[in-house]
Structure to design on (468 residues):
């Protein structure tokens, strides 16, 4: 990790721990330079990174303020690393609904840009946050890129398996967010009535080298999931 | 606009015009340095900016590739500057449903962080794309920050009025995205049946100096609006 990202990470932790809640702003550049024994440039890069993550805003002549908003419980799209990381202070549990290894269908061949003979893990999971159904995930992993997923791995964080066991680096995720009507089956899983809305995301996931390793459709409980997008036009 | 942003803008236009569709990638750094008569650093900053906008991905040792995805018609959350700009090749029209100037209610006092005596423009609009109802917007402007909005201004792009007439700079937007059930009234406006889903955004909008100038609730037609979020984990 580059120096400025390390510093940004450290400041992020302090923000999360409420260290700057009194003033609602970060220490001055000069104070941060001393604290982290870094150049002005590095501190500025760290602050720009925190701005991109939506954690602070820099107001000319006044300082760098914490950006909090009505974000409680919402998933910050700038800073999302899977449900397990998102809700680290809550209990995230997973029920594997179905788990199969079979050839890619035509739609997956196109989404995953793979050969029709490629074996794909078809995994359907229901994920709970603090015991409440949160999302039904339909995920399709290319087994040639992400080998060795077992039923047991699927009951925990597959992202953690990719990073920690396979030592692969996730590079890019393309996500399309929409609203839809729940299918009868997903309604039962989420404990909602038939015909209720869902907040849906369709994702294509790439490694750092650009290789597509998975695609997925996540069907969220519409009253439990919200996404937060913090934009900077500066 | 800084040099690297100008270059990024120019490359963005070339991408949009299909100039790189043959190869699916940008020219090499060396070619861009010559073309724009700029330093390597500036070109790298421009490419990093295009990465943040989700337009390209940089693959180690292979080059900088166009990032297209299944994004047709979806609103790129990294690069959204209002409907009029989003759909510049389509016809965006606006019907003002109601327009009032009155004191802030308790909810708005809290959202806009204003005094209860502050006069607020309460504007409800239905916006069409190519003649089809696209979104019902409930927007609340602080008249002390954004003065002089008329019924006529509200029939066009209020963002353009803020930028071009008032010469104010939009700095930050906090957006919460969720799915909900349409109200009977919004269903009629959007031409949907009662009880159908909506894709909803709740927004708080700030100027560059951090001052909140508006908040809004946008109720989108769930089959017409999709949001695209392109994440980089690199």
């Amino acid at each position: 990790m580059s120096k400025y990202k390390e510093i940004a990470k450290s400041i992020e932790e302090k923000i999360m721990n409420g260290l700057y809640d009194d003033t609602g702003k970060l220490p001055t550049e000069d104070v941060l330079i001393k604290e982290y024994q870094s150049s002005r440039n590095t501190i500025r890069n760290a602050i720009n990174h925190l701005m991109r993550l939506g954690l602070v805003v820099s107001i000319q002549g006044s300082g760098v303020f914490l950006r909090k908003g009505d974000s409680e419980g919402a998933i910050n799209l700038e800073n999302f690393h899977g449900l397990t990381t998102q809700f680290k202070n809550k209990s995230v549990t997973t029920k594997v609904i179905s788990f199969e290894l079979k050839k890619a269908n035509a739609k997956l061949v196109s989404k995953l840009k793979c050969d029709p003979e490629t074996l794909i893990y078809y995994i359907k999971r229901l994920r709970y946050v603090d015991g409440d159904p949160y999302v039904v995930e339909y995920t399709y992993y290319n087994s040639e890129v992400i080998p060795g997923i077992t039923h047991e791995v699927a009951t925990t964080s597959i992202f953690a398996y990719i990073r920690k066991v396979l030592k692969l680096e996730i590079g890019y995720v393309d996500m399309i967010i929409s609203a839809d009507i729940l299918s009868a089956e997903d309604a039962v899983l989420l404990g909602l009535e038939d015909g209720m809305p869902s907040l849906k995301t369709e994702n294509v996931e790439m490694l750092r080298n650009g290789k597509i390793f998975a695609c997925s459709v996540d069907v969220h409980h519409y009253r439990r999931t919200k996404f937060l997008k913090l934009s900077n036009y500066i």
